Amino acid sequence: MFALLRHLSWPELRHHPWRHLAALLAVVLGVALAFSVQLINQSALSEFSAAVRSVNGQPDFELRAQRGGFDEALYERVARHPQVAWASPVIEIDTQAVDAQGQRLPLRVLGLDALVAATLSPGLMPRPGEGVDRLAVLDPRALFVNASAQARLGPSVRLQTTTGLTELHVLGSVTAGGPPLAVMDIAGAQEQFGWVGRLSRIDVRLAPGADRSAVLQALALPDGVRAASPDESAQRVSNVSRAYRVNLTVLALVALFTGAFLVFSILSLSVAKRQPQFALLGVLGLGARERLHLVLAESAVLGVVGSLLGLALGTMLAALALRLLAGDLGGGYFPGVAPRLQFSAGAAVVYGLLGVAAAVVGGWVPARQAQRLAPAQALKGLGSRAGGSSRWLGPALLLAGGVLALLPPIAEIPLAAYASVACLLLGGIACVPAGVAWLLQAVPPARHALVLLAVERARHERQTAPIAVAGVVASLSLAVALTVMVTSFRDSMTHWLDSVLPADLYVRAATGDVLTLPPALLQGAATLPGVLRTSTQRTTGVQLAPTRPAVALLARPLANGPQELPLVGELRDLPPGETAAYVSEAVVSLYGAAPGSRLMVPLPDGRQAQVFVRGVWRDYARQHGAIVLHANDYQRLSGDTRVNDLSLWLQPGADLASVQRALRTLAEADGTAVDFASAGELRAVSLRIFDRSFAVTYWLQAVAIAIGLFGIAASFSAQVLARRKEFGLLAHLGLTRSQVLTVVAAEGAVWTATGALLGLALGLAVSVVLVKVVNPQSFHWTMDLLLPWARLAALCAAVMAAGTLTAWLAARSAATRQMALAVKEDW
To answer: Per the confidence metrics, is the pTM higher than 0.85?
Structure first.
């Protein structure tokens, strides 16, 4: 085999380097994109987990509650237990720091007892700076920051607290990595942030031989307090980001999928050009199986070289992305993490094998053509007809795709839906011959001789249709599916923004769970000149399940009833004495809170309240779920009257900038940091983020169409070479070269038109799976299916025109003026 590759395949590669380079590039790009996505996400997740471990330390378990914390009286009971070796109280606060230039920096503040934290959390142990007294770790106004915070903050820091901006001093450092972090004495943290008498968590290490379950039973933990694993938050982020990472990987593998069709087209052309060579080798003793193995070996070599280059390119892309994008990739799952590249040999082997497999799959049909070659006919230039495929294969794959689309996700990943899309694509391509025959039956007999010749030949040679239009069907169906999905999502999001942004101006307390809007600001805003009315909202997070991120709990007045929300489905009647709740689609999908059910909602202070789910609303802003309560119900249940968000409706003709300046003056008087945004700004930013997130899909559409057109060129070039005797006969019958080219162009138009119609139908089927199955199973929200017929028609027309032109150019370069000499071997 090595000798055959050296003496037969290498000269072919040297004579047509650019053609084979295109197929090689398709494999390289497919492997590089998929492998880089894997490395980026793996590095980011690993770095995030390491940062979590450095912050959480090394306890046996943590005692945690809701965001509001729990009574610190529990600490004494835990610390005195005879089977508890160490117990470290901790306060966790997310706030903002203001540097010397007035820039805000999101900062996580941990309050802990330095006398016991060193054993359980060495990465958080404060290290006083040079010349600083070591007892400074007990100073209630001293901060010890990690490297990320130290790079941004000076020796004095203004920290946003519940009473406004408070100036603290940086007196040392901690070794914990990750996003900006500051450690201070726990008593100072309780005083500065209004947490006197409360704790966020207690880190516990048991004595050797202690029984964890027995200790927890003896502690008799209060309601709302639970024992959590130290790496629970890292595992939670991994579970939540899994669907996002898998979707990115599948999207990247689309390039590898379409690259297999390019390999198919290139090798089909190569086999067609080398038919006389294969025929002569067959006469000399090279059997059909050896010819099959030779072409497969060529495709395997192409896959191996492409995979190796793709792995190298993917590693470089991942390193560049980690440097520029910090491993986030637009998903927002790893905020503040700046990971270093972590190469994975196992992932390299997997994606390398995928590249080789894609190339071998693409070379299978050309290899079968070389195997079925009849040497005697090929030496006469007659070529060989493509063998027909099994009639049941295409319908069986389509049926399997429909069944797989109905299956639930596996580990919250739509694996069955992805398999459904693959079955639909392959089944649609396998049904091309039958579809071509059915479509051409509806074509009336043409009066023009050349058109009649082209149509009748296309009808007679329909078994060669998969070779000619497989790339068109595959690429166009993917382009149609992506177009419908993106358009549907963008249209649904536009209508959703219109529903959730009814006010003219929005004011929000700056990021951090300790920051709320002061009552003076709320009262003053309602009386400002130009303000028609105001509405408030309380936003907090509650933990419904330990392994999932917090669910947003929104308390708002709902002055006009639940119709203020973008409801999905009908409302249930509220039973007497019940508290109404309206949940987002993610809460229904993740927690089973269907309308008519009752849900136990944890409150920020650790208590729980039972609510009746009246309805479901659509929320594209919170993937992990949101629950809306009437403001009066929330205040009655929790006693919390604080407010995070303020919405303002302005009078006609009011100056938005003047109102915003007045609001900022009110906020600065209380020392509260606030953010402003108009409805138009929020809408523009949301749509700009959306378009940037889906920019890669437009690139994939262009790549898919380009590969499909290149496949048409290669397919028709191969057919022209195999039909040189036919063209010679037509020349003897009086057809000129331009007329022969017209016949080929007409055939190209027929094939491309049928491929476009089949690709459109197949793409619409795939888009239904993407919109109705993949999207809800991945991100737990739905959207309305929108078919942009004008854009789809323009896409199909462009493919048909480009396919016809491509076929004409392929025939023009292959059909020479000496066509009549092609039949001399039969004289």
So the answer is: no
